[in-house]
Amino acid sequence: MIHTNLRSTAEMCGGALMRNHDEETMIQGVCTDSRKIQKGCLYVPLAGERFDGHDFAAQALADGAGAVLWQRDRGTPPDGSVIMVDDTLAALQSLASSYLGQSGVKVVGITGSNGKTTVKDMVTSLLETRYRVHKTQGNFNNQIGLPLTVLAMPEDTEIVVLEMGMSGRHEIELLSSIARPDVAVITNVGEAHLLQLGSREEIARAKMEIISGLKPGGLLVYHGDEPLLHQVLGEPATLKPEDLNIFTFGTGDRNDDYPTGMMFHARGMIFTSSRHAGEGISLPLLGRHNVVNALAALAVARHFGINDDQIRQGLTGLKLTSMRIECIETVHGVTVLNDAYNASPMSVKAALDVLADMKGYRRRIAVLGDMLELGSGERDFHAEIGNYLSPERIDLVYTYGPLSLHVAEAAKSRLPEGRVQAFTDKERLIDAVCGEVSEKDVVLVKASRGMKLEDVVEALKSLTGGKNDVRG
Predict the structure, then answer these.
(1) 365, 326, 323: which is closest to 454 by C-alpha?
(2) Which of 86, 228, 323, 377 is the right S-S partner for 341, CB 3.0 to 4.6 Å?
(3) What is the second-level CATH architecture of the domain 3-90?
(4) Buried b (16+ CB within 10 A) or exposed e, 78-87
């Protein structure tokens, strides 16, 4: 984590040290939560609609903070080591950017509508076979989380892998200006955030903002099957670095890398690609879409000199953030595919493809919840999912939420009578699913985060017996 003196801290965040304090006092680490103060850290008070961290600055100093930032318009600062700034959030971001610039680490920035967290985890696992790597944890991928991720970076880090999320235009542009990536990755363009941005074209423009801060001669790795990314990259308004290098991946053979063979097994995939021929690469993840995600990660790994043996080592040790097609074997013989972290039409179809490819199970069951933030076309997007289902691929469908009623309505025209059930009450949904599943069934649970369908997963994991000897 950042470890520097008060004088340098003030310079790095564009502030001024108040009073006659020892400028050589060392600061170690940064905290924005006054309840988690560590001795010697810098406390950064942030202001929200319902709170103001400045109210807790004096207590933070009393609890051992080495110094606090203080925004000029917030009145009289507390006694102690105070760095005065115009805006505490902007100062936090400047501090992170300065720390990155001084560290000399290489930066990989990753964005996209779907798959960015999976690709981040893959890239990290591959690079860790050779380098000391620091990555975004959890959902620390916004204007606050990304600077905190950077400032928590160990001083011996060689490569930092930063996930960049957004809900509107110019947010990724800001994150890219802080991080100044050497490599930028765009996994895809989906329908998430249509509510805020209005069109997939605007979503593509928002994602392409990641190259606005890319260093000269930097590498852009993007999904070459998406025509909107080609379009936006060529638009005069798109900010590009000098000497931009480009690498495309996808399923089409016009990409720089694309799959040439895929084989499924119980817990993952084996694949070859146009750039990785010969012995197949084993991927401990389910789904064709994850093979495409892997191609993006492999492009980054190759850029940093990761060899074939290290690639196999990195993928073998891959650990993913939870609730992204996490395969869970219950003690009752039911297999659960927990993909309850988020959902969009693109990611739901990909998850349903995974379920359809799960051969050898008694039944394939889908539990689908509402997809949120899709704007005015939300009903049509949900109906599109229902029309994507077929009796050859899915045996039973349960939907949850008012929007998913449109999934059920469309699915009922595709699947035999009685194989689709719709719910707006979660407890009734859980009772129905748990009362039906039995040994050798596989159950996909997929919804937007706000639907909290991990409750269904937990219920399936805690079954105590039942229909066909699973639930009584």
Answers:
(1) 323
(2) 323
(3) 3-Layer(aba) Sandwich (3.40)
(4) bebbbbbbeb
